[in-house]
Specification:
single chain; 693 residues; alpha/beta; nine-stranded mixed sheet; 28 helices; 24 strands; 37% helix; globular
Amino acid sequence: MTGPERETERKSEREFHRKPEPSAAGKARETGKREPGKIEKTREKRVEEARDKRESCGRKRKTDKNEKAAAGKGKQAKMGKNSARVPAPEFLPMSPEDAKTRGWNEFDIILISGDAYVDHSSFGTAIIGRVLEDAGFRVGIITQPRWDSPEDFKKLGRPKLFFSVSAGNTDSMVSNLTAGLKPREKDAYSPGGKTGLRPNRATIIYANRIKEAYPDVPIVLGGIEASLRRFAHYDYLSNKVRQSLLADAPASLLVYGMGELQIVEIAKRLQAGEDIREIRDIPGTTWKMEIKEWKTKKTENDPFPENCVEIPTFSEVSDDKTAFAKAFRMYFMEQNPVTGKAVVQPHPKTVIVQNRPMRPLSEEELDHVYELPFTGEAHPSYREAVPALEMVKFSLTTHRGCFGGCSFCSITQHQGRAIASRSPESILREAEKLTEKPDFRGIINGVGGPTANMYGLECKTWEKKGACLDRACLNPGICSGLDTSHKKLLELLRKLRNLPGVKKVFTGYGVRYDLALKDEEYLEELCAHHISGQLRIAPEHFSKSVTAAMCKPGKEVYETFCEKFEALNKKCGKKQYIVNYLMSSHPGCTLKDMIEMAEYIRDCGGYTEQVQDFTPTPMTVSTCMYYTGLDPFTGKPVFVAHGKKEKAMQRALMHYKSPENYELVYEALEKTGRLDLVGNAWNCLIRKKRGSQ
């Protein structure tokens, strides 16, 4: 999950307040090429020219429809060899009429998504669509289709190559349901925030409807939901272990990870006439094998079994929690694109095979992806705004990957630990385009990736052997082999804030504060230039045992950061505050730990406004601990709060001042023998009950 995606999800969660140069990288556009040079145009001039260009294009569309259709047919003839990049109109087609304006009679690939279509590089369907289009394929998009019949899946016709299915930017269970499994009041990825536009387990349901409509068309699964449910996994909604999505859905391939390299390779090979059932060697994909074939390979000493890791079967992991933890540990250790092996997990009716992870994109490849012709807007067919776009519309993605290793986060399993960064020049070109938007007000409101301050950071081992398997980068302390200099990020931020038309560049969330402490120059500039009053960070908890289970920095590191933050703000002459993300009911967290957190909040003079309960999501270490009660790496037991009552008490302790939580807080204090915190003394969390002695 990217930084903007994580912030979108957390925006409605919980907060705890604690008080306390012109750029030479701009590119002139007189020749139509991106040549180094000085930025000479003012923002007003650029906006005026952009408006004139749009009006000119509008007039031209009315007079040259026939010419455009003929040109479209000419482009179509070139697609077979993928020899030319097809100039993109403003949006990818969502209707047969859109296709006709390009001179198309059919699509090569149709993308199905549980999200609204937002043509922005923070949205997975938009990225995959633009990448396929850039490779020369005719791409159509169907978003949020009705799933009670196959009719909506037929509206673009039969694709020549395949359907690609995604639940959207988040797992459909997370999109639809709260941690308490109640329907969410808002869906950030739907027009107007409207709920009910996607089903639970959207990937499976969409694939089934496609199979009804077009039984012989290949289906490829992708997106975060498919990526993190590629093996047998614990499903929080049903409270049981479910099969791999590929075993439940009528699809031939599953793409895991970010997917650009995989999806283009699949498209090219299908276009060349290969059978999708024979495409078994692309890294970053999962496929299925018949049980009979797997048994034959094993008995005949086929080389394949020797070069793969066989983990406990679906039947074993669904019946035995120890086997589940073992399977998790085994496939977790193979999520390295350099050293990872294929992973095999037999299921009752099929065998699931995961190829080793796909390599990260190079700097050049990443630049190319993010500079594809995204409009940066929601599709004009929507009458209401898509809330998730508002969060990221004027933000910049600088990198992918995260080596933070938080137990509850799935980024390691989806994007990997190694950081892949864009070039400063590419990021600056994208920033220039933002300044040309008529509704841009001079504020870039986010710069980063899954973590804001990992841009440009690297470890000398990543290229040769990938991220280390025997140690974490940041836990229990920062590895000495890791380059923690923020020099590249500082240089980028300085250039961004000096771009004509840019007033402010903010980094309001996603800062890994233990890393920030390693570079005081970065922290000082962050305070001086890049915070808009509040900085959101994620200590998650203040109990040592809980932060250890989360693989987060301890309370001492947090306090050091707060002291440094306060001192640097004083030096800058600013009054800025820290907003903390905190969590209850995480595996390893007891009522005593939550009381310790409540006392710490009390002593800091702060108070929680909102809270978040731990939500088990597939393929995270924390979810494995939640389901099994075991640490998958040590085998040691881990306490888990499963009961609704205990979860409610843990949550209430983060809101101990709220009158409606009095009974729950009192019960928690009584249960743990801490009635000393009930009374009128300064250190009490709640007052005594009326009439009590």
